[in-house]
Design goal:
The longest helix has 33 residues. The protein is mainly α. The N terminus is likely disordered.
Length: 264
């Protein structure tokens, strides 16, 4: 009898403990999952919060809203008095929505010349579908090297995300291998390697990049050529010369690429 009483007590304690655990740890989670903001537009204040939990929750909420977030995005990007944080939140929301936010492409592109917003606008456009290609391509003619660099980087990302035809993207990278800004030449070389198409035009541009006065461009060119396989045979003389580059990292990367290409 005593054993039965003890077992019954243990069972009751287990039930009580289980109920306490659920109320203490599980019930709050359920409340969070079902909580709905009273105002659908609260995300604009939270998406760039310094609190990662708040910003992450706001990003998920924008995903849930989908196209219903567009009115606030349009309003914010069209408002000259909007705070920088709100504009950045609207741009980030465009990136989250991707092609669903295509109607805001023009408004996002208008933010590119603003140095404080260039990077965010370019990143957003890289997610927004094939219609973003036009504004990004036009931005390659900007007098501002930062705008040109971020536009080219986003075109490289958009190539896979949209997707875009290599025939439309590779010539832009080849042309920017002679840009006056070394950062742009480096981005061009990097994405030519990622795409690794374009045949002799791309290989020739990268071989020339091995002789660039800037180390970062030579390094990016040596790395990029390693992805072309037999197509890069014409660059072998330039790579052998680069294997003796004054910069140790460039010389090492050129040597690695030579090994790759000679193994094909």
């Amino acid at each position: 009898m005593r054993r039965i009483i003890i077992l019954a007590c243990l069972l009751v304690c287990g039930v009580v403990a289980g109920g306490w655990y659920y109320l203490r740890y599980r019930a709050p989670d359920a409340a969070v999952e079902t909580a709905v903001p009273a105002d659908e537009n609260t995300w604009i204040d939270q998406l760039y919060s310094q609190n990662p939990t708040v910003s992450s929750a706001a990003a998920k909420y924008v995903e849930q809203l989908g196209p219903r977030a567009l009115p606030m995005i349009h309003t914010t990007l069209q408002d000259p008095a909007a705070t920088p944080e709100h504009v950045k939140a609207a741009l980030k929301a465009c990136g989250i929505l991707g092609p669903a936010a295509a109607s805001a492409i023009g408004e996002v592109a208008e933010q590119l010349p603003d140095p404080a917003l260039t990077a965010e606008a370019a990143i957003a456009l890289s997610f927004m579908g094939p219609e973003a290609f036009g504004p990004l391509r036009e931005s390659l003619a900007s007098d501002d090297p930062i705008v040109r660099r971020e536009a080219l980087r986003s075109i490289g990302k958009l190539k896979e995300r949209a997707p875009l035809q290599s025939s439309a993207v590779v010539p832009l990278g080849v042309a920017r291998m002679t840009d006056a800004d070394p950062g742009i030449r480096s981005v061009a070389a990097t994405y030519l390697g990622i795409i690794h198409e374009g045949g002799s035009d791309a290989v020739s541009a990268l071989a020339t990049g091995l002789q660039d006065p800037e180390v970062q461009v030579r390094l990016a060119s040596a790395t990029a050529l390693g992805s072309f396989g037999p197509e890069a045979e014409a660059a072998l003389p330039a790579l052998r010369k680069a294997a003796s580059d004054s910069d140790a990292e460039v010389a090492r990367e050129a040597g690695v690429t030579l090994v790759k290409l000679q193994g094909h």
